[in-house]
Amino acid sequence: MAEKPVVILIEDTPSLSMLYEQYLSDEDVDVRVAETGAKGLELIRQHPPAVLLLDIELPDMNGLEILRYMKSEQHPGAVVVITAHGSVNVAVEAMRAGAYDFIVKPFNANRLRVTVNNALERHKLSQLVETIQAGARSGYEGFIGRSLAMQAVYRIIDSASKSKATVFITGESGTGKEVCAQAIHKQSERKNGPFVAINCGAIPRELMESEIFGHKKGAFTGAVADRDGAASQAHQGTLFLDEIGEMPMDLQTKLLRFIQTGTFQKVGGSRLEKVDVRFVCATNRDVLAEVERGNFREDLYYRLHVIPIAMPPLRDRDEDVLEIAQSYLEEYAREEERQFIGFAPDVQAMIQAYSWPGNVRELQNIIRNVVVLNDGKRVTSDMLPAPLSRIVPEQGREIPQPTTSPMLPQPGFSRNSGSFHATPPPVPPADSRLATPATNSSDGKPKPLWQIEKEAIEAAIAQCGGNIPKAAEMLEIAPSTIYRKKASWEKQEKSATPVFTDSPWPR
């Protein structure tokens, strides 16, 4: 039988600790109580908690010291701060120190139960992420990157390669669709057979049938000898049809029959030939939209679309960008006999901030350009070609290394447009992630807590250039929480009496 998750309550008032224990008596948790900070720390070391309910004002120490200890020791448990001193400054400081939630005395049983259950769910998710990251691969069959998006791709390739089912790869240009197809072939039982790639968008329409199925001598002008097409060449191997969305409609009918029967006729031939081929297709088009427009056969689409793999764009692989850039820099430096070993900090910021509309191929080309035209130990901003050279990173921001978490987009930068606003938002203080909002209004009266919370979240959104998901990541909350609260604020501002949510701080 699985052990119950441990919930540690550090509360110096015996009557309150008994009350809180009673609130949680029907929950499937193991509640342990400490009256002082010292006893609480001892409990944490002996029984690492899934959730820590922490009073701020303790007789022997400030509760924030315990919170900082949890963070420094990298305890995975979620910390919920309890205090009767409902100052937003305390709340902001607690959230910065790593608290998951903030609850103000007095509160009822339902409020505590909901908060603890949410914290337990957060703990489970963090453990799952740690498990995934512990087994994360930094590279795979030609790919570079340890991001969660790429880990998902690696796992699908592992499973798909063991099957004979057709794989349908989608993704923007430059995301590595052919690398994915090659990885499937290399991991399959056909790895010793041929891998034949044919680009349906690069071959003239009148020659495409011959390229795929081959032709007989005299079949058309210039056919001076029999020739095997890609279908014959890929026998007992993999046939990769890139840009399948570009295939003419009349040839789609013949391809469908080939996939269904494994047989085909060469152009100008009369004999059916049979081959054993595994099909992998790729496109950067929305093929379903092409089906609706009548440009792609619906039956062929469903015949091909058996195992879909969506290649993530580089802008969704933030933690991989510098690692990929470093790999290409080292490779090209060796080829061109240059001295480059890394990137200057401001160049790292530029690489992270740019939206990379051309994805990995664009990154590859820019690094090649830099290495061929320059030399030195580190790549500096004056070596960068346009459009990367036009990005002006924020000064003073710490630049993460390739294996760390991705940095936030620079103020005023739009990932979609790849450009900066003319006037970037104000830069927050260097020693804080988020400036603490003023707690008093112009007349000296304390502001409502919802309004201070609103200012703090809006400051984060401004710092992230309007990117709500990044602001949510910065505040360690879900993007849906920000959207929900924005809707709530609109209602509050239209009424004289603010409508408070069930929590004074976003979860």
From TrEMBL:
Domain Sigma-54 factor interaction stretches: 143-372
GO molecular function: ATP binding; sequence-specific DNA binding
Positions of the UniProt region annotated as Disordered: 391-447, 487-507
CDD domains: AAA, REC_NtrC1-like
Keyword Transcription in annotation: yes
Gene Ontology biological process terms in this record: phosphorelay signal transduction system; regulation of DNA-templated transcription
4-aspartylphosphate found at: D55
InterPro entries for this protein: AAA+_ATPase, AAA_lid_NorR, CheY-like_superfamily, Homeodomain-like_sf, HTH_Fis, P-loop_NTPase, Sig_transdc_resp-reg_receiver, Sigma_54_int
Keywords of this entry: Activator, ATP-binding, DNA-binding, Nucleotide-binding, Phosphoprotein, Transcription, Transcription regulation, Two-component regulatory system
Protein known as: DNA-binding NtrC family response regulator
Organism: Aestuariispira insulae
Domain Response regulatory, chain residue ranges per copy: 6-120
Domain of life: Bacteria
Residue spans of biased composition, Polar residues class: 401-420
